[in-house]
Amino acid sequence: MLKAGVFLGFLAMTMDLPMPPPRFGADGGPPQRMLLSWMPGEAQCDGRPVAHVMLRRPLGELGFGPATQMPSISYTFEIDAAGRPLSIARDSKGNSGFSGEVAPALAASRFAAGARKNCRIAYSAEAKALGEAALEDLASYTMAPTSRRLPKEGWDRLKSAGNCFTAPFPQPLLRAFPDFDKLPGTPGVRDWSLVAYDTDGKGAPTGMKTLFGTGNKALDAAAKKAVGDSRFTGGARAGCRYPYWKAAETLAPPPAPTEQSLRPQNSNCPAGSRWKRPLATRFPEPWRRRAIEGWAIVTYDLAPWGGVGNAKVVAAQPAADFGQAALTIVQNATAEPSPQGATGCVETVRFTMGRRIDQEMVEEPGAMEIF
User: Fold this and answer.
1) pLDDT tens-digit profile of 192-235?
2) C-beta of residue 345 within 8 angstroms of C-beta of residue 301
3) Is 225 helix (H, G, I), strand (E, B) or coil?
4) Domain for residue 185, yes or no?
5) Are 36 and 153 contained in the same domain?
6) Which residues contact 166 (CB under 8 A, 6 or more apart)?
7) Would 234 be classed as within a structural domain?
8) SS3 of residue 354 by DSSP
9) How far is Cα of residue 201 from the mean position of the Cα atoms in its chain?
10) How far apart are CA 287 and CA 103, in angstroms?
11) Which residue among 128, 163, 308, 313 is the one 20 to 30 A from 148 at the CA level?
Protein backbone atom coordinates (compact mmCIF):
# COMPACT_ATOMS: atom_id res chain seq x y z
CA MET A 1 0.00 0.00 0.00
CA LEU A 2 1.40 3.36 -1.05
CA LYS A 3 0.54 6.47 0.88
CA ALA A 4 1.13 10.04 -0.24
CA GLY A 5 0.42 13.48 1.22
CA VAL A 6 -2.82 15.45 0.77
CA PHE A 7 -4.76 16.14 -2.45
CA LEU A 8 -8.35 17.18 -2.84
CA GLY A 9 -10.76 16.17 -5.52
CA PHE A 10 -13.44 13.60 -6.67
CA LEU A 11 -16.43 12.70 -8.86
CA ALA A 12 -15.04 13.33 -12.28
CA MET A 13 -13.53 10.61 -14.38
CA THR A 14 -11.45 10.87 -17.50
CA MET A 15 -12.82 11.36 -20.94
CA ASP A 16 -11.30 10.28 -24.24
CA LEU A 17 -11.26 13.83 -25.62
CA PRO A 18 -11.46 17.25 -23.94
CA MET A 19 -15.04 18.37 -23.45
CA PRO A 20 -15.98 20.92 -26.14
CA PRO A 21 -17.03 24.14 -24.41
CA PRO A 22 -20.77 24.86 -24.65
CA ARG A 23 -21.78 27.86 -26.74
CA PHE A 24 -22.16 31.32 -25.29
CA GLY A 25 -25.60 32.71 -24.59
CA ALA A 26 -27.27 35.19 -26.85
CA ASP A 27 -26.00 38.11 -24.77
CA GLY A 28 -22.42 37.30 -25.78
CA GLY A 29 -21.23 37.83 -22.21
CA PRO A 30 -18.00 36.47 -20.76
CA PRO A 31 -17.79 32.68 -20.36
CA GLN A 32 -18.59 31.06 -17.04
CA ARG A 33 -16.95 27.95 -15.69
CA MET A 34 -19.58 25.24 -15.50
CA LEU A 35 -19.68 21.83 -13.83
CA LEU A 36 -21.24 19.38 -16.25
CA SER A 37 -22.82 16.18 -14.95
CA TRP A 38 -24.15 13.22 -16.93
CA MET A 39 -27.51 12.08 -15.58
CA PRO A 40 -28.73 8.56 -16.46
CA GLY A 41 -32.26 8.07 -17.69
CA GLU A 42 -34.43 4.96 -17.54
CA ALA A 43 -32.87 1.74 -18.79
CA GLN A 44 -35.04 -0.41 -21.04
CA CYS A 45 -34.66 -3.88 -22.53
CA ASP A 46 -36.85 -4.81 -25.50
CA GLY A 47 -38.73 -1.57 -24.90
CA ARG A 48 -39.65 -2.38 -21.29
CA PRO A 49 -38.16 -0.71 -18.18
CA VAL A 50 -35.60 -2.73 -16.26
CA ALA A 51 -34.96 -2.14 -12.56
CA HIS A 52 -31.46 -1.29 -11.40
CA VAL A 53 -29.77 -2.32 -8.15
CA MET A 54 -27.13 0.43 -8.43
CA LEU A 55 -26.89 2.87 -11.33
CA ARG A 56 -23.53 4.67 -11.15
CA ARG A 57 -23.35 8.31 -12.15
CA PRO A 58 -20.56 9.22 -14.57
CA LEU A 59 -18.02 11.60 -13.09
CA GLY A 60 -18.39 15.32 -13.69
CA GLU A 61 -16.53 17.52 -16.16
CA LEU A 62 -15.56 21.17 -16.38
CA GLY A 63 -16.77 23.29 -19.28
CA PHE A 64 -17.69 26.84 -20.22
CA GLY A 65 -21.19 28.29 -20.44
CA PRO A 66 -23.93 29.21 -20.51
CA ALA A 67 -24.90 26.46 -22.92
CA THR A 68 -27.60 26.95 -25.54
CA GLN A 69 -28.17 23.22 -25.98
CA MET A 70 -26.95 20.47 -23.69
CA PRO A 71 -25.77 17.21 -25.23
CA SER A 72 -27.17 13.73 -24.74
CA ILE A 73 -25.64 10.34 -25.34
CA SER A 74 -27.07 6.82 -25.40
CA TYR A 75 -25.68 3.30 -25.16
CA THR A 76 -26.89 -0.16 -26.09
CA PHE A 77 -25.99 -3.15 -23.93
CA GLU A 78 -26.97 -6.59 -22.67
CA ILE A 79 -27.45 -7.82 -19.09
CA ASP A 80 -26.14 -11.18 -17.90
CA ALA A 81 -27.88 -13.50 -15.45
CA ALA A 82 -26.27 -11.76 -12.47
CA GLY A 83 -27.44 -8.30 -13.60
CA ARG A 84 -24.11 -7.10 -14.99
CA PRO A 85 -24.13 -4.88 -18.11
CA LEU A 86 -22.07 -6.30 -21.00
CA SER A 87 -21.56 -5.64 -24.73
CA ILE A 88 -21.75 -1.90 -24.03
CA ALA A 89 -21.59 0.20 -27.19
CA ARG A 90 -22.37 3.80 -28.03
CA ASP A 91 -25.65 4.13 -29.91
CA SER A 92 -25.04 5.75 -33.28
CA LYS A 93 -28.17 7.84 -32.65
CA GLY A 94 -26.56 9.47 -29.62
CA ASN A 95 -24.26 12.48 -29.55
CA SER A 96 -20.60 11.57 -30.11
CA GLY A 97 -17.44 13.41 -29.08
CA PHE A 98 -18.27 13.70 -25.39
CA SER A 99 -17.26 11.94 -22.20
CA GLY A 100 -15.55 8.56 -22.29
CA GLU A 101 -16.60 8.06 -18.64
CA VAL A 102 -20.25 7.22 -19.38
CA ALA A 103 -19.65 3.65 -20.59
CA PRO A 104 -17.37 2.71 -17.65
CA ALA A 105 -19.96 4.09 -15.20
CA LEU A 106 -22.60 1.91 -16.85
CA ALA A 107 -20.26 -1.11 -16.66
CA ALA A 108 -19.87 -0.55 -12.89
CA SER A 109 -23.67 -0.46 -12.44
CA ARG A 110 -25.89 -3.42 -11.63
CA PHE A 111 -29.42 -4.31 -12.66
CA ALA A 112 -31.94 -6.80 -11.35
CA ALA A 113 -30.79 -10.40 -11.89
CA GLY A 114 -31.89 -12.08 -15.10
CA ALA A 115 -30.37 -12.19 -18.57
CA ARG A 116 -31.73 -9.59 -20.99
CA LYS A 117 -30.88 -8.36 -24.48
CA ASN A 118 -31.65 -5.31 -26.62
CA CYS A 119 -31.12 -2.88 -23.74
CA ARG A 120 -30.64 0.86 -24.06
CA ILE A 121 -30.06 3.81 -21.75
CA ALA A 122 -29.67 7.53 -22.44
CA TYR A 123 -27.65 10.07 -20.45
CA SER A 124 -28.37 13.79 -20.53
CA ALA A 125 -25.91 16.49 -19.56
CA GLU A 126 -26.71 19.08 -16.92
CA ALA A 127 -24.50 22.14 -16.53
CA LYS A 128 -24.40 24.46 -13.52
CA ALA A 129 -22.18 27.44 -12.81
CA LEU A 130 -19.61 26.77 -10.10
CA GLY A 131 -21.40 29.27 -7.89
CA GLU A 132 -24.61 27.23 -8.14
CA ALA A 133 -23.39 23.62 -8.32
CA ALA A 134 -24.07 21.34 -5.37
CA LEU A 135 -21.21 21.30 -2.86
CA GLU A 136 -21.15 17.50 -2.99
CA ASP A 137 -20.60 17.61 -6.75
CA LEU A 138 -17.79 20.15 -6.37
CA ALA A 139 -16.11 18.01 -3.70
CA SER A 140 -16.68 14.97 -5.86
CA TYR A 141 -14.95 16.58 -8.84
CA THR A 142 -11.84 17.41 -6.84
CA MET A 143 -11.32 13.73 -5.91
CA ALA A 144 -10.50 12.72 -9.50
CA PRO A 145 -10.56 15.73 -11.80
CA THR A 146 -11.31 14.88 -15.40
CA SER A 147 -9.04 17.43 -17.00
CA ARG A 148 -7.96 20.41 -14.91
CA ARG A 149 -8.10 21.34 -11.25
CA LEU A 150 -11.24 22.95 -9.87
CA PRO A 151 -11.11 26.73 -10.34
CA LYS A 152 -10.81 29.09 -7.37
CA GLU A 153 -14.52 29.87 -7.40
CA GLY A 154 -15.33 26.25 -6.65
CA TRP A 155 -12.63 25.92 -3.98
CA ASP A 156 -13.82 29.09 -2.24
CA ARG A 157 -17.28 27.58 -1.85
CA LEU A 158 -15.87 24.34 -0.47
CA LYS A 159 -13.81 26.24 2.11
CA SER A 160 -16.36 28.89 3.07
CA ALA A 161 -17.37 27.47 6.46
CA GLY A 162 -15.56 28.45 9.69
CA ASN A 163 -12.02 29.81 10.09
CA CYS A 164 -9.98 26.70 9.30
CA PHE A 165 -8.77 28.23 6.03
CA THR A 166 -7.67 31.64 7.26
CA ALA A 167 -3.99 32.39 7.83
CA PRO A 168 -2.00 31.19 9.60
CA PHE A 169 -3.18 27.84 8.26
CA PRO A 170 -3.19 24.98 10.77
CA GLN A 171 -0.46 22.44 10.07
CA PRO A 172 -0.58 18.72 10.90
CA LEU A 173 1.59 17.68 13.84
CA LEU A 174 0.35 14.11 13.48
CA ARG A 175 -1.60 12.80 10.48
CA ALA A 176 -3.29 9.43 11.00
CA PHE A 177 -4.57 7.19 8.20
CA PRO A 178 -7.01 4.29 7.93
CA ASP A 179 -5.68 0.77 7.43
CA PHE A 180 -6.83 0.65 3.81
CA ASP A 181 -5.96 -3.03 3.33
CA LYS A 182 -8.58 -3.99 5.92
CA LEU A 183 -11.36 -1.90 4.38
CA PRO A 184 -13.78 -3.33 1.80
CA GLY A 185 -13.72 -1.70 -1.61
CA THR A 186 -16.16 -1.51 -4.51
CA PRO A 187 -15.47 -3.02 -7.96
CA GLY A 188 -15.28 -0.27 -10.55
CA VAL A 189 -15.74 2.58 -8.04
CA ARG A 190 -13.19 4.66 -6.15
CA ASP A 191 -14.72 5.11 -2.71
CA TRP A 192 -14.08 8.36 -0.86
CA SER A 193 -15.05 10.02 2.39
CA LEU A 194 -14.82 13.72 3.25
CA VAL A 195 -14.70 14.34 7.00
CA ALA A 196 -15.77 17.66 8.55
CA TYR A 197 -14.39 18.59 11.98
CA ASP A 198 -13.33 21.37 14.33
CA THR A 199 -10.24 21.55 16.54
CA ASP A 200 -9.99 22.58 20.20
CA GLY A 201 -7.40 24.88 21.75
CA LYS A 202 -4.82 22.07 21.80
CA GLY A 203 -5.28 21.19 18.13
CA ALA A 204 -7.28 18.01 18.78
CA PRO A 205 -10.12 17.34 16.29
CA THR A 206 -13.68 17.37 17.66
CA GLY A 207 -17.14 16.75 16.23
CA MET A 208 -15.98 14.55 13.35
CA LYS A 209 -18.72 13.73 10.83
CA THR A 210 -18.94 12.46 7.26
CA LEU A 211 -19.76 15.48 5.13
CA PHE A 212 -19.90 13.76 1.70
CA GLY A 213 -18.78 10.45 0.26
CA THR A 214 -19.67 7.40 -1.77
CA GLY A 215 -21.45 5.64 1.08
CA ASN A 216 -18.75 3.12 2.02
CA LYS A 217 -19.64 2.87 5.73
CA ALA A 218 -16.41 1.15 6.71
CA LEU A 219 -14.33 3.86 5.03
CA ASP A 220 -16.49 6.59 6.59
CA ALA A 221 -15.92 5.17 10.08
CA ALA A 222 -12.18 4.66 9.53
CA ALA A 223 -11.81 8.17 8.08
CA LYS A 224 -13.48 9.78 11.09
CA LYS A 225 -11.29 7.80 13.46
CA ALA A 226 -8.15 8.76 11.51
CA VAL A 227 -9.06 12.44 11.68
CA GLY A 228 -9.76 12.11 15.41
CA ASP A 229 -6.33 10.58 15.97
CA SER A 230 -4.58 13.46 14.15
CA ARG A 231 -3.26 16.64 15.77
CA PHE A 232 -2.79 20.17 14.42
CA THR A 233 -1.23 23.53 15.16
CA GLY A 234 -3.15 26.78 15.36
CA GLY A 235 -5.44 26.27 18.33
CA ALA A 236 -9.23 26.23 18.11
CA ARG A 237 -10.59 26.14 14.56
CA ALA A 238 -13.99 25.52 12.96
CA GLY A 239 -15.06 24.19 9.57
CA CYS A 240 -12.05 21.97 8.83
CA ARG A 241 -12.28 19.13 6.29
CA TYR A 242 -10.11 16.25 5.19
CA PRO A 243 -10.67 13.55 2.51
CA TYR A 244 -9.57 9.93 2.20
CA TRP A 245 -10.13 7.56 -0.71
CA LYS A 246 -9.78 3.87 -1.44
CA ALA A 247 -8.87 2.61 -4.89
CA ALA A 248 -11.54 0.79 -6.86
CA GLU A 249 -11.51 -2.98 -6.60
CA THR A 250 -10.76 -4.65 -9.91
CA LEU A 251 -13.81 -5.61 -11.96
CA ALA A 252 -12.73 -8.59 -14.07
CA PRO A 253 -14.24 -9.22 -17.52
CA PRO A 254 -16.37 -12.25 -18.40
CA PRO A 255 -14.48 -15.26 -19.84
CA ALA A 256 -13.28 -14.85 -23.41
CA PRO A 257 -14.09 -17.41 -26.11
CA THR A 258 -11.23 -19.45 -27.59
CA GLU A 259 -9.41 -18.00 -30.54
CA GLN A 260 -10.04 -21.22 -32.45
CA SER A 261 -13.81 -20.67 -32.22
CA LEU A 262 -13.43 -17.33 -34.01
CA ARG A 263 -10.74 -18.34 -36.49
CA PRO A 264 -11.84 -17.56 -40.09
CA GLN A 265 -12.52 -20.60 -42.29
CA ASN A 266 -9.88 -19.57 -44.85
CA SER A 267 -7.17 -19.14 -42.20
CA ASN A 268 -3.66 -20.31 -43.02
CA CYS A 269 -2.07 -18.42 -40.13
CA PRO A 270 0.35 -20.56 -38.11
CA ALA A 271 -0.14 -20.87 -34.37
CA GLY A 272 2.23 -19.27 -31.89
CA SER A 273 3.81 -15.85 -31.48
CA ARG A 274 4.39 -13.91 -34.68
CA TRP A 275 5.18 -10.38 -33.52
CA LYS A 276 8.58 -8.72 -33.77
CA ARG A 277 8.05 -7.36 -30.27
CA PRO A 278 5.30 -7.75 -27.64
CA LEU A 279 2.09 -5.87 -28.37
CA ALA A 280 2.14 -2.38 -26.84
CA THR A 281 -1.06 -2.68 -24.81
CA ARG A 282 -2.47 0.71 -23.81
CA PHE A 283 -5.30 0.50 -21.29
CA PRO A 284 -8.21 2.84 -22.15
CA GLU A 285 -7.84 5.52 -19.48
CA PRO A 286 -11.45 5.90 -18.28
CA TRP A 287 -11.59 2.13 -17.74
CA ARG A 288 -8.21 2.01 -16.00
CA ARG A 289 -9.30 4.66 -13.53
CA ARG A 290 -12.27 2.52 -12.56
CA ALA A 291 -10.12 -0.67 -12.55
CA ILE A 292 -12.45 -2.35 -15.05
CA GLU A 293 -10.65 -5.01 -17.08
CA GLY A 294 -11.56 -6.15 -20.56
CA TRP A 295 -10.53 -8.09 -23.63
CA ALA A 296 -10.99 -8.04 -27.38
CA ILE A 297 -10.39 -10.56 -30.16
CA VAL A 298 -9.13 -9.24 -33.48
CA THR A 299 -8.76 -11.08 -36.79
CA TYR A 300 -6.28 -9.83 -39.41
CA ASP A 301 -4.05 -10.73 -42.34
CA LEU A 302 -0.27 -10.38 -42.63
CA ALA A 303 1.78 -9.18 -45.59
CA PRO A 304 5.06 -10.98 -46.42
CA TRP A 305 7.03 -8.10 -44.89
CA GLY A 306 5.05 -8.30 -41.62
CA GLY A 307 2.50 -5.53 -42.13
CA VAL A 308 -1.01 -5.93 -40.71
CA GLY A 309 -4.09 -5.57 -42.90
CA ASN A 310 -7.81 -6.33 -42.94
CA ALA A 311 -7.98 -6.09 -39.12
CA LYS A 312 -11.45 -6.51 -37.59
CA VAL A 313 -12.84 -6.76 -34.06
CA VAL A 314 -14.89 -9.96 -33.80
CA ALA A 315 -15.59 -9.90 -30.05
CA ALA A 316 -15.02 -7.54 -27.10
CA GLN A 317 -16.17 -7.33 -23.47
CA PRO A 318 -17.42 -5.65 -21.40
CA ALA A 319 -17.59 -2.83 -23.95
CA ALA A 320 -16.79 -1.91 -27.52
CA ASP A 321 -14.18 0.56 -26.21
CA PHE A 322 -11.83 -2.39 -25.61
CA GLY A 323 -12.35 -3.52 -29.18
CA GLN A 324 -11.37 -0.12 -30.55
CA ALA A 325 -8.29 0.00 -28.32
CA ALA A 326 -7.27 -3.53 -29.36
CA LEU A 327 -7.78 -2.76 -33.05
CA THR A 328 -5.40 0.19 -32.83
CA ILE A 329 -2.83 -1.95 -31.01
CA VAL A 330 -2.89 -4.72 -33.62
CA GLN A 331 -2.90 -2.32 -36.57
CA ASN A 332 0.23 -0.63 -35.22
CA ALA A 333 2.07 -3.92 -34.64
CA THR A 334 4.58 -5.57 -36.98
CA ALA A 335 5.03 -9.32 -37.44
CA GLU A 336 8.12 -11.26 -38.42
CA PRO A 337 8.44 -11.43 -42.23
CA SER A 338 7.28 -14.63 -43.92
CA PRO A 339 7.60 -15.62 -47.58
CA GLN A 340 3.87 -15.69 -48.33
CA GLY A 341 2.30 -13.77 -45.47
CA ALA A 342 -0.81 -15.18 -43.81
CA THR A 343 -4.58 -14.75 -43.73
CA GLY A 344 -7.12 -15.31 -41.00
CA CYS A 345 -4.86 -14.68 -38.01
CA VAL A 346 -6.50 -14.24 -34.59
CA GLU A 347 -5.22 -12.28 -31.59
CA THR A 348 -6.72 -11.87 -28.12
CA VAL A 349 -5.74 -8.57 -26.50
CA ARG A 350 -6.30 -8.52 -22.74
CA PHE A 351 -6.45 -5.37 -20.64
CA THR A 352 -5.56 -6.24 -17.03
CA MET A 353 -4.88 -4.08 -14.01
CA GLY A 354 -1.61 -4.05 -12.13
CA ARG A 355 -1.20 -3.68 -8.36
CA ARG A 356 -3.90 -1.65 -6.61
CA ILE A 357 -2.94 1.48 -4.70
CA ASP A 358 -5.05 2.57 -1.72
CA GLN A 359 -4.23 5.97 -0.29
CA GLU A 360 -5.51 9.18 1.13
CA MET A 361 -5.77 11.88 -1.50
CA VAL A 362 -2.62 13.98 -1.80
CA GLU A 363 -2.22 17.56 -2.85
CA GLU A 364 -0.61 18.26 -6.20
CA PRO A 365 2.95 19.62 -5.87
CA GLY A 366 2.92 23.29 -4.96
CA ALA A 367 -0.82 23.41 -4.29
CA MET A 368 -2.17 24.51 -0.92
CA GLU A 369 -5.85 23.51 -1.12
CA ILE A 370 -6.68 21.39 1.91
CA PHE A 371 -10.30 20.90 3.00
Assistant:
1) 999 999 999 999 999 999 999 999 999 999 999 999 999 999 88
2) yes
3) helix
4) yes
5) yes
6) none
7) yes
8) coil
9) 41
10) 9
11) 163
